[in-house]
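Hi R.,

Here's the chain you asked about this morning:
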Amino acid sequence: MAALYAGLYLRLKARDGPIRDKVKLALFAWRSERAFIPNKEQVLIDFLCGLLVNKKKNKVSDEDSELVLKCLSDILHTKKAHEPSKYGKTIIIKPSICQVLISALTDPNTYTDQAVLNLVISCCYCIIHSQCLSYVFTTKYEHMCGLLSALVQIVVRRVTTGRQLPTQLLELLEKVIHIYKGSQRAHPNQKQVLQMVTSKLLVPTVMFWGCTRSSNSDLQQLAKTLINIIQNGIFDKDHQVSFNMYLSTVCGEGESMAFFLKTIENLFSTIASVLDGKHSLKLATDRIMKMFAMDYLPYFFNGFIHHKCNSDNITAHRLFLYICSLIGVKLDDSDPCEQTLEAGQIGVITGLLRMVHEADIYHVANDNAAGGQQLQAYRTVLDVTLRTSRCPEVYSCFHQLLHLNHMILEPRIVEVLKLCLMSPIKSDEADEFLAELILTYGKLRQFPKWIDKVLVTVEQAHITSWSGFPPRFSQRFSEVVQALPQGATVDVWGRLIKVISTKYLPLLMSDSGYKGDNLVCVADLVQLYLMNVRIVDYATTDLTSSKVNQLMVTMETDALVPLLDLCLQKKNSSLLLGTLLLCGVWGELDLMLGNYKQRESSHQHKSLAEVDRVSPVILDSYWSADKWVKLQKAINKSADKRTKYCWDQLIHQVLRLALLSVTTTSPDISSLLTKVLDTLFPVVEDDNVGGIWDGTVFSITEQNYNTARWSLVETMLPLVSQCLGESHVELIAQFIVKLYLGDVASSERSKVSMKTIGDKILEGFVLKQKQEIPSCILTAVWKSLSSLLQPPTKVGKKTKSDLSVVHQVLSDLGDSCQVWTQDMDSEKLEFLQRVTTAVDSLLRSDINVKLSPSVVCSVRKMIELLSSLPIEVLNSSDQHRCILGLTVILHTLRSSVNTTQVMEKCAGLLSVTMEAGHTPVFQMLDVVTYLDWLDKLYCHSQTDASLEMRVRLVLEVTCRTLVQDYRALSKLSGYTNKIREKIADRNEISLDGCVIISSCCLNQLEKLLNKSFLPVGVRETCETCLMQLITVTIKFVTNTDQSQTATYDLSNLPLAAVSCYATTLKCCSFGEEITEIEKMVQDSFQTMLKWSLNVLQQEDASESSQSEALNLLSVICHSHTVLTDMFTSHHKAEVWDLLMAKFRRMLSSQSSVASLPDWRVQRRVLLYNGQLSDQHWTPVILTQLQETVAALVPSCETDQFQTMINSLLNRTGVQYVEAGTQQLTSTLYIWQQLLNFDLSADQTTILVHAVKNLVLNCLALMQHIHGINEEKLVSSLAVPILTTLVRMLDFGPKLMSSHTAVLTLHCCQFTPLDGSTSFVPAFHAVYDVLNALLVHHTNTVYGVIPSFLSSTKRLLKVVVNNGDQEKLGQDEERISQLVGCALLFDRLCQLISTHKRDFNKVAGYLVSDYVCEVQKVTLHPEVKKTLVPAMYKILDLCDKFSISQLHTVLQTGVKEVFKILYDDYMKYFRYSEKT
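And the predicted structure, written out as tokens:
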């Protein structure tokens, strides 16, 4: 056999024989250990590589070539191909194979043959990733460059054709890029690198970068990395001189082209060939390659600048010109190209201009000294851009030219404005440019000049339909106008009036056919300007006021009156619209200036009271009433909804004037207000669907006019809420109800729709201020539901009878004849009693109604509307009928299918309404009937877990409401008999609902009896009901009890029965004479205890059973004083071990769970939301577990107490930080709860000693947090530590000695306060510690005043540094947080000021810290307004010597700040006998 295998080498070398057999033989020889060939691995590799290198000589066909590649790939994937042989030799691959593989990758035939391509990639992958074989590529730069180029070409072709990229290809490309980066950097001849990059890598890399720019993936990061590597090679420092010389030559300023500049010339020639579509490498279509190349040009320019290839700005400018010439834009010609450029060309120029601006290439002074070449080039760019058709790139180019210098745009600013302002199609880029433009002119104090340019632009433009100014420009325009000086304000105002009166008015009066569209634009400009002028201000001079009054008169006489007269003469919609805009802004100014008060105010009031027609003449008295009436008729006949809306705005001004005119002595003008409101309120349409509106007058159409009118109504509701009549309230209610019944989609946040208007009305304060509106909405809802649930003609008698009752009840609840908002009288009480009786009878019957899906959908919408109403502010009658209506709806939906979601919403709303507690609903409702119905409803809801939770909440809220209503409490006795009957029939019916009701009633009764102020009669009634319920429920529990058996499986017992037992246990005193109930409790105690322990041991126990088990254990621990014989030390140790084990399991399974301040509230929230997952219930269970542990510890004897305290103390060590903060925070919460219990003398001694060690542990933890500087630990650990310290400090010296209390100050010093999100809770926690120290450990603070002030100073610095106006910006939430922190600091200063004798010597240092910090930043006004009074309180502590010291030692700039602070303090705050 060995001899046979020994001849393999001769067979491989034989010239005859097929290649296929030789390849198989080579693979066999590689794998076989018996095949003997000297230096076998090297021979086989050489053989295969030789076949690939010399294909023609060896007569290797394409099919054979694929077999050779397959064999080579299989061999390279084996382990021994990359390891030294047993003789220490490694395989050597000849470099010629590199060229073969690279050629195969770039061969078009290979690309089409996926199998061959994968084999070549696989071979390259193995070689590159091999430590022994990779040298064949890495040792030669040309090979790496060729391989990288080939791989990038493959990737580009696949990406552009939408084909998937193999993972192996991406990994290979990433590895090759990494290796190539080092190879390029280490190459000794960078000019050769540039040549190779230009010839092989530049085009593929640019295409790769371009085709991945829009994606956000690892491939995009690879492209960015590669393009940066290429840029480094192109702009190496060795090429800087060549670039300078080449650019000076091509720009005609240098000598002839030198030989060594050919590499630079080839670089630009390559780019130019791609742009012209003449490059030989076709990786995509010519259009796509040109687009990617143009996108790359600004990036190329940016690399040139940032690699410092430009020795001066002139070189960079030359490159700018040359790149522009490459894309066909000759900027250095006296007569540049006349053709219209494409958007891509403008985009390239814009990108170049952006780089020029960012790198500060253009210096105005230097360029002017050099002849203004750059300025001329940029103005040529402007000329070329103005000839281009409108597109976003044009406006972006304008924006970049403005960034460079506004003087570039100045000569042709009118054309620029015409292109941007008068375009019928608005774009965001144009808006941003205009906003920046107006801001620039505002900063240069050239706003009047800008206004003149705009007026010239409007005059020269041919406007057919004005669509208004863009939003961002309008906002920035408003800011600039508000900052104008008084003189410039009135001057611009005068110019605008003059333009209207001298230019547009004569044109309109002539017979030239001028339509006045330009007047609309000017009127919009005047409106935008005058709505933002600051002419009513404390700084307004008398001269300015007189000029303003004169301008108001001039505007009346020279503009408004002539224009209004023309409106009556000519039927011109543009003229009418522009005139009404001017009238509107004049009215707003008149209202603001208060000019109406100067025109015989008594006569004005009389005219308002006697007016019989709503007309703008009431405010705009410069025109006669008859003419206003004629104008109104013309507007009503007009089809232009914009003019009608402008008229509505004028009437709205009349409304505001009427409201301002009302005084205690003025005549009654309610009739006028009613007429005005009747005019402004639109009619509610049946579908109530209005179009989307952007909030501007010019976008109003037939479709969205109703939306605009309702938007106007919504804005005026806060003003007229107390003046609304019944008809207006009904209109609002109809609008809301029909809006919810219809299918109205929401709009964008910036748009106005009927839905957004309705939401604003429901969310506003008007519904809380005007109870008639939600009451009327409630009436309309019940009316709508009544019509929806009206019985059809063709149904069965039983169904028709049921629906008839439902229909009648809902009709009565929606009776509009009843005034539901008035106080209860006998008639209304009788009416409600009748409806309640009908509801009682309905609940006693089993209704069987099948509702259609459309009806169910409409009912859902009405329930959603009710959920949006402010239920808590409704009066008792409305709440009562809301409870009745929701009860009827739930009862009706119970028998229908697919109503679960609606029932969930309805049940949640019912619980909220009943909890509002304004109505004695159970004084009318039959308690037994209602509770029995709730029992049935709960049994029905058990099929759906989410619905069951919400109905469970309804049961709990109902029981609480019933128990708290003392007059209805006696009715509970009747339901006790009902429970007894159900328990007797427990084998046939479910007891879950009635046991839950019993549990909730028992719990509420027990809480009520613990109140000390309870009247005697009420207490007797409560005790009677409590004993009746206990008697019934405890017998039920003990009858199910299996304590006498070996097992204690209580699976047949409802969980609520455990709660009943726990409440009963609370009420037992276990005196000398044990009652029958106490005997039952004793007999079942061990069973209940074992059940709770068993539940907590189970891994799969439900959250509700765990909660009940923990609740029972907590009650047992609280009642340990009367359970000494039953709850022994052995039981306590068992419970401790079990709770700690449960504690560890929960913490190990959860990453981060926060303890809850009140787990009972959170449990009700979870019930209301129907949240079922473990992540929602885990915090509740964890908090219960912690409170149970805290209750168990004080119940133990001294030895056990000492052991448990030591265990809890050991759990607060620094070593637990690494495992997560959850255990630490949970243990700290247990310590906080532990302090609430009464302890024996021995326990108190142990606790005091433990507190000292606990504070030391807390100090160590704070030092650790300060050292590692992780912000997440501040909120998760540092704040709970400080909260625990505050709880201990509140107990005063009896718990914490002076030495221990001082350590809390050190904890404050170590608390990080520089976090971006954690500083607010940290600030509050540190404040709480300082406040507790000064209140409860005053004498301790007196001994460490410097340390106390040091912590106070840290709080001050945090507020000042974070209150910087530049940092805050417009972040309202952040500002509110800072104001809250400043208020706490003010309270601390107030507390310090009460200890004047001890702090007066050091108070000056705190003032010094304040003025030094404030001098560094600009405080936000809201924060400063809160901090300054705090400093005034500290200044109250300073004596004259401290003030003199501050005046002396402070630095110059800081001294000025202190002088202003002290002067204001002396003027406004300091107490004196005169003040």
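Confidence is low (pLDDT under 50) at residues 595-606, 1040-1048.

Let me know if you need anything else.
M.
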